[in-house]
Amino acid sequence: MSDSIDVGDRIRIVSLPPYVKTAEPMPMLRPPDVIRVGEEGTVLSREPGDYWSVRMENGAYLLSSQYLEKVDAD
Questions:
Q1: Distance of CA 58 to the CA centre of its chain
Q2: Residue 26 carries which DSSP code?
Q3: Other CB atoms within 10 Å distance of the CB of residue 67
Q4: CB 56 within 8 A of CB 11
Q5: 12 with 39: CB under 8 angstroms?
Q6: How far is CA 16 from the centre of its chain?
Q7: How far apart are CA 56 and CA 74, in angstroms?
Q8: CA distance 44 to 18
Q9: Whether 55 contacts 45, CB under 8 Å
Q10: Closest by alpha carbon to 8, among 35, 32, 42, 36?
Q11: Are 52 and 63 in contact (CB under 8 A)?
Q12: What is residue 5's DSSP assignment?
C-alpha cells in the first residue's frame, strides 16, 4: 500500500489505530477519537517505519499506511 501513496496525495482513514501520535516537534500520544474512520487528509511527508505525516482537519498526525487508503481523484 505504501508505494501507492505519495507526498501531497489525499488519503482516507480506513481504520483507527489504538492511539494516535501527533506530528509536532514535541509529539504527543492522543486517543484514537481525535480522528474518525472516513475522514480525509493530505500527506505531508514520509516518515521512517512506513509511517506518514498527515494533515487532518484538526491537526497533523503520524499514521501507519495500514490505516490509510489513497483517495482517487475523479
A1: 12
A2: S
A3: 22
A4: no
A5: yes
A6: 10
A7: 20
A8: 22
A9: no
A10: 42
A11: yes
A12: -
One pLDDT digit (tens) per residue for the chain, 74 residues:
445 899 999 999 999 999 999 998 899 999 999 999 999 999 999 999 889 999 999 999 999 999 999 998 76
Non-local (6+) Cβ contacts of 71 within 8 A are 9, 10, 11, 12, 40
Residue whose entry in the numeric block shows the C-alpha cell 482513514: 13
Give the global pTM.
Answer: 0.85
Long-range contacts of 40-48 (CB under 8 A, 24+ apart): 40/10, 40/11, 40/12, 40/13, 40/71, 41/10, 41/11, 41/13, 42/8, 42/9, 42/10, 42/11, 43/5, 43/6, 43/7, 43/8, 43/9, 43/11, 44/7, 45/7, 46/7, 47/23
